TrEMBL record:
Organism of derivation: Paractinoplanes bogorensis
Protein name: ABC transporter substrate-binding protein
Signal sequence region: 1-27
UniProt entry keywords in alphabetical sequence: Signal
Amino acid sequence: MTHRQRLSTILVALLAVLGLTAMSATAAVAAPPAQAAAVPGAPITGTFTDAAGGTGTFAGTFTPAKFSAPDGHLLATGTLVGTLTDSTGANVGTVNKSVSAPAAIQATCRILDLTLGPLHLDLLGLVVDLNQVHLTINANSAPGNLLGNLLCAIAGLLDGTPTAGQLAAILNFLLALLGQL
């Protein structure tokens, strides 16, 4: 695997973790051609109501060009390319537009990782044999996950959590590296 493929894989995984959610056509900046070729796109799908009242589909990709953090919220700006298909399966049109999308961070944090070896108990003639047990508890931190958010916050009290601006700077650095390959 080449360095370019490794960095591309890392960036795609990072974008998956960020979980690009809704697309918004506000404050868009076109992607430089060198970066657009080097950075892999994230698949985007959705539905819409077509002219006949049926459900049409959208299938395409979003290729990030830069990240920013206005008002402390992470925002990805890049190019959205895709095809609109109506409920009959006919191609309605294509999209090739610069868009900005909020990047929602969904994190998983390890709460407990416990391994118990095999256990043999003889309690006055009652014999209990337990094979090895591996218990893993993870918490998902995301909007609406109250307990997951709380446990991740407690588990990460001593961690240096980056701000949205710091995360945007890191992601822009990765995009620049991919653009140079």
